[in-house]
Fold this protein.
Amino acid sequence: MPEQRRYATLLAKGEDRRQRILLVAQRLLVRNGWRNTTLGQIGREAGVSPAGLLHHFESKEQLLHAVLEARDRYDDARRDSSGDVIEQINGAAARFQQVPDLIGMFIVLLIENLDPEAPLRGRILHRYQAAIEQISEGIRRGQRAGRYRTDVDPALKAVEIVAFLYGMETSWLLDPSIPLTEVFKEYTQSLALQLTLPADGH
Amino acid sequence: MPEQRRYATLLAKGEDRRQRILLVAQRLLVRNGWRNTTLGQIGREAGVSPAGLLHHFESKEQLLHAVLEARDRYDDARRDSSGDVIEQINGAAARFQQVPDLIGMFIVLLIENLDPEAPLRGRILHRYQAAIEQISEGIRRGQRAGRYRTDVDPALKAVEIVAFLYGMETSWLLDPSIPLTEVFKEYTQSLALQLTLPADGH
DNA sequence: ACCAACTTAATGTAGGTTCAGTAGGTTGGT
DNA sequence: ACCAACCTACTGAACCTACATTAAGTTGGT
């Protein structure tokens, strides 16, 4: 039996549990925030004791990083800087329905790490700026292609769009009954109107 | 000497300290979240021991409620349902500069109270819905007055606008260097464009 | 026999709260 | 003017609970 296969069953079981823990941790993180989520809660829902949990992750902090890395892998997998801005926004909207458990993680961590000394602050700020940059670039591309008016400042508009997206996440976390699709549609229409019409000086 | 004036000097000192505690608590609440703010921190910055703090407020939770009530009084004082939506949004923008310490309190508490069982969840949801209602009504008023197109659904647009406002708070909390004024101006222009132009069926 | 995957029972610590006491200003009577 | 009773505004130490983490032991597959 090859070295790699020794304990294959056990290791598979462990990996399974590990994934389950990550999923539960992710969900509770969004619902309760990270600081207010205890290893006991995660463990209970994942079927292990707090100590058992630390068999898979060496500390609570490291578990958080594992959750973040899983999330980053997901994001990286579907980053597409090809489509135009409207499509990017619609993509974000679709994700609300497709993977509701992932929505809000970023916002929750952002709020929990506002302090300059907060451990995740750098990482989060970086991600925010990357989002701005991605949207800006989408707008610039549209302008170069002649699809968008050139008198709209891409950087400003990007800040606005990202604010709208964050705000929708926040609103939806609070009240999932809001008419997501319609609001997104409304906003993208409004955007299109402003981005594609010629200026009229009133 | 009238009954109310007994111990006037002492009571004034107490009231002074009380106000100072409220201010510090409010600031730390936004920076660190409520759960991550300790009575020790608040006390240190307000010049009392944790125990001394509880002489003025009977518990940490009650202190939070006092902060909320102070905030509500402020909000109620400047509620104006008279101006149109654009003006309301500009008013919100102005508050970022005027009273930066008040910005973000709502968002932070919102995120910390997402859970259905969370103590402030009801209060926060109610306030969100009130904000939506206020904006909706502003749009409807504009429509009745013939200033706005009637083919924009006020409820939908209100959700969008509130999302933008929350998102701007969040973004600004994370990165205060964003060009606030310009983004607000950009957004209100975009809004005006959509709300006041006749429909073109493309 | 060995190793992963646990469990239960400590351990340590942070933080809210309680308690007993101190300082010093206030009041009302003398 | 002075004093006793009373009050507010605290402080420091002790208390208690909730957690994260550690230690030591158990189980069951390979």
Summary: The radius of gyration of chain A is 21 Å. Chain A has a mean pLDDT of 92. Residues 1, 6-10, 38-40, 50-51, 54, 59-60 of chain A lie near DNA strand D (CB under 10 Å from a C1'). Chain A touches chain B through 49 residues (CB under 8 Å).
